[in-house]
Amino acid sequence: MNPTMETELLVIGGGLAGFAAALQAAQAGAQVIVLEKMPTTGGSSAMSGGCLAFAGTDMQAAEGIEDSSDLLKQDLLEVGKFENDAELVQTYVDHQLDTYEWLKQQGVAFSPVIEASSGQSVPRVHTVDPADTVRMLEQRCRESGTVQVLTNTRALRLLRDGETAPVTGIIASGPDGEFAIRAKRGVLLASGGFGRNAELVHQFAPHYDNAVFVCGDGNVGDGLAMARKLGADVRDMIYIKGTYGKHPVDTTNHHSCLAVYKGAIAVNDDGKRFVDESISYKLLGDAVMAQPYHTSFQIFDQPIFESGDDRVRILDFERRLEEGLIVKADTLEALAQKIEIPYETLRSTVDRYNAFCDSGDDQEFGRKKLVHNHGELCRIETGPFYAYPSTAAVFGTYCGLRVSPTLQILDVLGETIPGLYGAGEVIGGFHGGAYMTGSALGKAVVFGRVAARSALNA
After folding, report:
1. How many helices (H) and strands (E) does the chain have?
2. Structure confidence by residue, pLDDT tens digits, 235-268
3. pTM, whole model, 2 decimals?
4. Would you say 448 and 20 are in contact if contact means Cβ atoms under 8 Å apart?
């Protein structure tokens, strides 16, 4: 075995959570090593839509958007069906605004806040270029002079001297073979989820066996496995969710399209609605996976099409039309023919929904708003008409290791595993039963910073 390396904090994973933690530690004067098993950093963070959920920001104020930490917490708990860890949610709420300001201080640029999305009562999506953001934090780490980044280096197992002893480091495998890294202040797992591990997905969520998976190639759950070997507990494993709105055959555009959040309805292959379209797109993902062929169509008209926004990927309807992914027809009957669903059924579905919009009472599925508690329902009546074929894609596993509010990993007895911390997609407890737009990248950077502070202050 090669000589042992030493550091103060060891971070496993070179995505947003890992580099947020490393930079936070570096700014506190600590020596840090970041391990990334892939040839390049970024992981699933760099592939994401770049949305972060922050509340009470200056950007919201500039747009006249009234938001608060209390409303953010309420929305997170509601969309999570109160299955999430309320104390962990509180940790996010307590540190989210400071993290927003911290990101700006590092040079991260946010696009204007313009839309409410999944799980949000008011617009709070703060959008960044995700790959650039990870690269920027990595660059700040390298410039600090106290952070070393090792790529092509895989963590194999955690080290500790006994069952109750602190984690002191890892055995890793790099280009020159196996070696040990000792970490005086602890090991922080930021190694991502397990979307690329079909066996694990089947074990915990077999109903997603046929879903499309879009995540980093390294997301096979090795951080999860290393911690479980030490007795770490897990939570929310049954809440693996796919994001609704992925085109079922397009392989070049991995982003969802969510016309339902602007007023579209979702119909199955029989031309019938099957869900309240305003709910979290994770729950919409569950619903579409239960439909014939795991597919559906988002049906909308010209005013809804025109309400799209090219600054928001999930609402850029014009681009999807130009890419040939949206089906367009002058009449609803012609649209039904093009997408090969029964016209009479589709006509009846649309007419019935329009009557619900008029009465303010969706007697089928109880839809009250466009998205969560935001936006008024609108009729679908003005041609031309549009259909977007939609299935679910799993962009993250949204479950994992049980952690304390200070991001210490807990064992199956509810006790902390000394010296072991977690942040990002590897942890569970935050999302609960569903998901708010921006909360995955949000928790990566917020919890990465909190975990680093916890390790340095232990």
Report:
1. 14, 18
2. 999 888 888 999 988 766 667 899 999 999 999 9
3. 0.86
4. yes
